[in-house]
Amino acid sequence: MLTQLGIFLRKLRLDCGEIMKEMATKLDVSSSFLSAVENGKKKMPESWYDTIVNLYNLDKEKQDELMTAIEESQKSLEINLEDLSKEKKRLAFSFARELENMNKEEVDKMKIFFKKDGE
Q1: How many Cβ atoms sit within 10 Å of the Cβ of residue 95?
Q2: Which Gene Ontology molecular-function terms are recorded (predicted)?
């Protein structure tokens, strides 16, 4: 089953008149790997976001659409805790545990708290 990311990539390919092999070549992967990413069987390499934005000259709206598709297609998020203090690691685990229990108001407050300047 296609993920949101897969739908975005397929549409992008079709809009550019490309077949899967052409996009896979541009991304320096096999067609089967690209297909697995589209179908949610493989995780998209982090470098693809910038690569796709640059290769296909995506405007701000399409960049946002791509990021949303990536976020909606992810089943998990990997965070490197290697260089964090014990205190920061515990905070990360606590936050992850509480995420499921947060109501909309709490989520909105966290979004404001973490929002970067200019966004």
Answers
A1: 11
A2: DNA binding
Alpha-carbon torsion (101, 107, 110, 115), positive or negative? positive
* This prediction's pTM: 0.67
Are 69 and 102 contained in the same domain? no
Q: Spell out the per-residue pLDDT of the chain, length 119, in tens.
A: 788 999 999 999 999 999 999 999 999 999 999 999 988 888 899 899 999 999 999 999 999 999 999 988 877 677 888 999 999 999 988 888 888 889 999 988 888 888 855 44
Q: At residue 13, what is the residue type?
A: R
Q: What is the DSSP letter of 16?
A: T
Give CA–CA dist 18/11, Å, rounded.
Answer: 10
The residue segments making up the domain with residue 105 are 79-119
Domain count along the chain: 2
